[in-house]
Structures are given as structure tokens and as C-alpha cells.
Amino acid sequence: MRDISSRAEAAMMLAFLLALTATLGALFIGEVMGQMPCTLCWYQRIAMFPLTVILGVALWRGDDRGRAYAMPLVIIGLVIAIWHSGLYLGLIPEAITPCTETGPSCSDKAQMSIMGLPIPYLSAAAFFAIGLCLLNLKGSRS
User: Fold this and answer.
1) N or C: fewer beta carbons within 10 Å in the chain?
2) In angstroms, rounded to a whole number, what is the distance separating the alpha carbons of residues 119 and 23?
3) Cα-atom radius of gyration of the chain, to the nearest Å?
4) Which N-terminal residues, if any, form the signal peptide (predicted)?
């Protein structure tokens, strides 16, 4: 295992660990807790899951260009998570349409939270934090 010797590598490591935690958390919610994700949650997973692989490979290879591959997924995921959070909060004046009557429901506040924190907020925070880490990678390696 390589030493984390630069600020860029530390930021990449943190971004990877955040993506890994979010991915494992989403899998835990779905597979262990049995909570089926709504459509917007699926879209966020589609953006988050590849980030774990992209950032992991970039970290392993010491390749700062992983930032260029990861950032579009971070932006897309963050936009969806912010939209989902707005729907959850009721700030966006429309019903949460991705949720069906027979499927998972975002309007069930108890089902949509982990330790009292709403899942859409956790997702937005994860994408935001990963984005900050990737923005911290700008510049030359030391």
C-alpha cells in the first residue's frame, strides 16, 4: 500500500472513502434493511456506484485524472439529490411522482431516514463532499 504523501492523494482517498461509504450504505439499506429505492434514489445510485470504482482505480494508480472522470457523475448525482431533497422537504411544489402506490414511497418520512437523517439529504451531502474533495485536487502534485 502506498503512502498518502500529498494533499491531492489525501483528497482522492477521502473522496474514495466517501463514495465507498455511500455505496455500502445504499446496499445496506436495500439488501439488509429491505427498503426498495424509489426512482430518484436509483438515479443517485447510478451516479454513486461507479464513483467508488473510478476513484478507487485512480487512487491505486496515483492518477489525478480520475477527477475528470468522476466530476460529471458527482454533478449529476448532486443535482438529482438536491431535487429529491426539495421534493422531500416540500420546497418543490409538486408531488413526489417517482414513487408509486405499490412501490417505495418518499413521503413515508420514517422509511426515508437513517438515524433520523433523511436519505435524500445524506445523498446530497455525500455528493457535495466528494465534489469538494475532487475540487481540492486541482493543481500540481507535491
Assistant:
1) N
2) 13
3) 16
4) none
Q: Is 129 exposed, middle or buried (0-12, 13-18, 19+ CB in 10 A)?
A: middle
| Residue 83 CB-density burial (10 A; 0-12 exposed, 13-18 middle, 19+ buried) | middle
Residues 43-63 have pLDDT tens digits of 999 999 999 999 999 999 988
Compute the distance between CA of residue 27 and CA of residue 18 in angstroms, rounded to an integer: 14
Contact present, 80 and 48 (Cβ < 8 Å): no
What tens digit of pLDDT does each residue of 102-133 get? 555 555 555 566 666 788 899 999 999 999 99
3-state secondary structure of 117: strand
pTM > 0.70: yes or no: yes
Report which DSSP code applies to 124.
H
Q: Which residues contact 70 (CB under 8 A, 6 or more apart)?
A: 15, 51, 54, 55, 58, 130, 134
